[in-house]
UniProtKB/TrEMBL annotation:
One of the Pfam families matching this protein, by short name: YycE-like_N
Residues annotated as domain YycE-like N-terminal: 11-63
Protein's name in the database: Glyoxalase-like domain-containing protein
InterPro entries found in the cross-reference section: Glyas_Bleomycin-R_OHBP_Dase, YycE-like_C, YycE-like_N
Lineage: superkingdom: Bacteria
Domain called YycE-like C-terminal: residue spans: 79-128
Taxonomic placement: Bacteria, Bacillati, Actinomycetota, Actinomycetes, Micromonosporales
Length: 136
C-alpha cells in the first residue's frame, strides 16, 4: 500500500558523527535547533545518540556517535540538507555557524546562486537557500 497522501510522514535524517559535542555546537549553538533527545550508549553494540530539530516540525536530524560507532562519516558533495528560508540568508547566522565549527563551502553554481552552504564538523553540507519551497 502506498503512503497516504492526506498526512505528511515525519522524516528522520540519520548520520554518523565523529564528535557529538562538536555536532551539537554546530546544529544547536550555530543554527539554533533544539536538542530533542540525547542518549548515551549503555551496552554492547549501542551508540550515543543526539537528536536535534525544531519542536513541532515534521523532521529531525539524528546524529549517532560514540566509541561503538559502526561507520565513519563519509559525506559527499551531494549530501545536502537544504533549508528553504524564502528570503535572504542572514550574514550573522553564517558567521555563527562558522564560529560553531562550520566551514563555508561552494556547493556548485546552482546552490551558490540560491544560498549559502556550510559544512558541519563532520563534512556534511547544510544549504541555507534563499528560495521558497515549492512542490511544483
Amino acid at each position: 500500500m502506498p503512503l497516504s497522501r492526506t498526512t505528511a510522514p515525519h522524516v528522520r535524517i540519520a548520520r554518523p558523527s565523529r564528535d557529538l559535542t562538536a555536532a551539537e555546537r554546530f546544529w544547536v549553538g550555530g543554527l539554533g535547533l533544539d536538542v530533542l533527545w540525547r542518549a548515551a550508549a549503555d551496552g554492547p553494540g549501542e551508540h550515543d545518540l543526539l537528536i536535534v530539530g525544531l519542536p513541532g516540525a515534521e523532521w529531525h536530524l539524528e546524529l549517532v556517535g560514540g566509541a561503538q560507532l559502526a561507520v565513519e562519516p563519509a559525506p559527499t558533495t551531494e549530501d545536502l540538507l537544504v533549508l528553504y528560508l524564502d528570503g535572504p540568508v542572514d550574514d550573522e547566522l553564517v558567521r555563527e555557524l562558522e564560529r560553531a565549527g562550520g566551514t563555508r563551502v561552494s556547493a556548485g553554481p546552482y546552490w551558490d546562486r540560491w544560498g549559502v552552504t556550510v559544512a558541519d564538523p563532520d563534512g556534511y553540507r547544510l544549504v541555507l537557500s534563499t528560495r521558497e519551497w515549492s512542490n511544483d
